[in-house]
Write a structure and sequence with these properties.
By secondary structure, this protein is of the alpha/beta class. The chain folds into two domains: about 210 residues, Alpha-Beta Complex (Quinone Oxidoreductase, Chain A, domain 1), CATH 3.90.180.10; about 140 residues, Rossmann fold, CATH 3.40.50. The strands form three sheets. Strands 3, 4, 5, 8, 9, 16 and 17 form a seven-stranded mixed β-sheet that branches. The chain has a six-stranded parallel β-sheet with strand order 12-11-10-13-14-15, sandwiched between helices. Helix 8 links the parallel strand 13 and strand 14. The model has no long low-confidence stretch (mean pLDDT about 95). Its cofactor is Zn(2+). Its EC number is 1.1.1.1.
Length: about 375
């Protein structure tokens, strides 16, 4: 599938434009195609013509919740810069970009620490407005339509802070690399940056969606000797082999608690475990599946309920560690271009995660497929 010809984009830097967007009007309600007005980019912002976007589990979770509505979801996306706001020097019209849900200002304490990717200025945005002025850039008949994760890519055009976009090679296929703006990169980074998996180690992964399978891919590339996948969907077992899973466990197939099964077959527990479901109860299970002394559990999933984590203190006294992972520890502007390069060199898999290609007008099909557990990533393609 070819990308948009940048020569067909007519820059409109100082005027609002009208385009189609898939608007969520209420929790769990089908998205509605609406004509929305997209404001011009303000200082340090860029307006992007979205080329491809995909449905991430966190979009789905937030859509089901009683979040802010009306809203335009979507954050895993690629596109082409249509116009730039005052003060933007990093981007120009026609640049190919990935959007990111957590930005990098490169100046705050976190960005300059070398220890973190949790930007104090452009970190997770939960209020549905822009970082700069706490207002939206979308409206219908003057009524504000709220953003999601500072991106809102389920729209033909969107406005993001320039710190929430990453310039990429124009040779990279935008309809593929959009997956690197969240899920695939987050899983790889959890394996490489957060856990720093060692060669010959044993890894167990709870949840074999895109996130979990990306962890598996990262573990395989690091030389893990056993990569155990745990999921209640038996169909995932065969699919997971292509990403590095060496053994598959369905908790429903055993009368034993799954953590006991894992400790038994690994001779005391895994070196690393990853919670990729978004179920805080599974964090304890993942901790119990690790070995004493150096067992490390990394949690990546976004829970839709019961966000509190509980675990017996004895799990930590015996040497286990629990770590959180936001976007796999990647600093988006600094690190994502290298992941795109790895994909172009065929060093990492992306294409294999794309189970469905869906035209924008059929976006609700992607939500149905995710609800039914019949997809990894649905890539949604904007009209040319």
């Amino acid at each position: 599938m070819s990308t948009i010809d940048i020569n067909t984009i007519a820059p409109r830097p100082h005027v609002a434009i009208t385009c189609k967007a898939a608007v969520a009007w209420g929790a769990g309600e089908s998205l509605v195609m609406e004509q929305v007005e997209v404001s011009p980019p303000q200082a340090m912002e860029i307006r992007i013509q979205v080329v491809s976007t995909s449905l991430c589990r966190s979009d789905f979770t937030a859509w089901q919740s009683h979040a802010i509505f009306p809203r335009i979801f979507g954050h895993e996306a690629s596109g082409i810069v249509e116009s730039v706001g005052q003060g933007v020097t990093e981007f120009k019209e026609g640049d190919h970009v990935l959007t990111v849900f957590t930005g990098e200002c490169m100046q705050c304490r976190q960005c300059t620490s070398g220890k973190s990717n949790v930007c104090e200025v452009l970190g997770l945005e939960r209020r549905g407005v822009m970082h700069s002025d706490q207002k939206t850039r979308f409206s219908i008949n003057g009524k504000p339509i709220y953003h999601y994760c500072a991106v809102s890519s389920f729209s033909e055009y969107t406005v993001v802070h320039s710190g929430c976009a990453v310039k990429v090679s124009p040779l990279a296929p935008l309809e593929k690399i959009c997956l690197l703006s969240c899920g695939v990169a987050a899983g790889l980074g959890a394996a490489w940056n957060v856990a720093d998996i060692c060669k010959g180690s044993t890894v167990v992964i709870f949840g074999l969606g895109t996130l979990g399978l990306s962890v598996a891919q990262g573990a395989k590339l690091r030389g893990a000797s056993r990569i155990i996948g745990v999921d209640t969907n038996p169909e995932k077992g065969e699919i997971a082999k292509a990403f590095g899973i060496t053994e598959f466990l369905d908790p429903n197939d055993s009368n034993e608690p799954i953590q006991q099964v894992i400790k038994r077959i690994t001779g005391g527990g895994a070196d690393y475990s990853f919670e990729c479901i978004g179920d805080t109860g599974m964090i304890t299970t993942a901790l119990q599946s690790c070995c004493d002394g150096w067992g490390l559990t990394v949690t990546l999933g976004v829970p839709k309920e019961k966000p509190e984590v509980t675990a017996h203190y004895g799990l930590f006294l015996t040497g286990r560690t629990l770590k959180g992972s936001l976007f796999g520890g990647w600093k988006p502007k600094s690190d994502l271009p290298s992941l795109v390069e790895k994909y172009m060199k065929k060093e990492i898999q992306i294409d294999e995660f794309i189970t469905h290609n869906i035209p924008f007008e059929d976006i609700n099909t992607a939500f149905n497929l995710m609800r039914e557990g019949r997809c990894l990533r649905c890539v949604i393609h904007m009209p040319k």
